[in-house]
UniProtKB/TrEMBL annotation:
Any one Gene Ontology BP term: phosphorelay signal transduction system
Gene source species: Planotetraspora kaengkrachanensis
Name the UniProt record assigns to this protein: DNA-binding response regulator
Pfam families cross-referenced by the UniProt entry: GerE, Response_reg
Every Response regulatory domain range: 5-121
Keyword annotations: DNA-binding, Phosphoprotein, Transcription, Transcription regulation
Highest taxon, organism lineage: Bacteria
Amino acid sequence: MTDVRVLIVDDHPTFRAGLRAILDGRHGIVVVDEADDGESAVAAAARCAPDVVVMDLAMPGLDGVAATRRIAGGPDSVKVLVLTMNDTDQALHAVLRAGARGYVLKDASADEIRSAVLAVAEGRAIFGTGVSERLLRSFAGQGPGQALPYPELTPREREVLHLVADGLDNTVIATRLHLSAKTVRNYVSALLDKLGAASRAAVVAKAREAGFGGPARSDRYFRP
């Protein structure tokens, strides 16, 4: 049986070392590289072609959600297992939309983490203890029209997206929101990445399809 090649992504070196210790050489798993932020993870995934990326979420620069989207959506379709301390529904939904195949919390046992890596490598979706139950409850309690579009966006990003969907340019948006033009450009760049859009026009199309834009904002787009 071919070893499962794993890339570890976490900004804490002590945690990476501990994770390597429980994975490398165990049950047919080999750790081929490590990365400490999202950009490094994307580069490492392209360089070493892992079977599974074990991905943290909260990292400097490109976060785990955006990195997952770029890696899982790449030409090699590398599988991503999220390993995080973040147990919120918003984070869970965001990484699933980004293409993650599994979600496990960092307080999981070594055996649970190894089993999750192997399951994801086999193409199965895997959720850690407590996560799957919460996911089912979340979808079971979600009535028509209650889904929050693009849950990975911050409230300010939603506000910018609404104005972009209205067709306003960066200068007008900056004036409306009392921001600098550079700050608005940064928000638009983040929206391109988080919506998986190749251009501003594509962002507008995706936003309007999701219900952004128009004469009035809906409060559901601005829930914290």
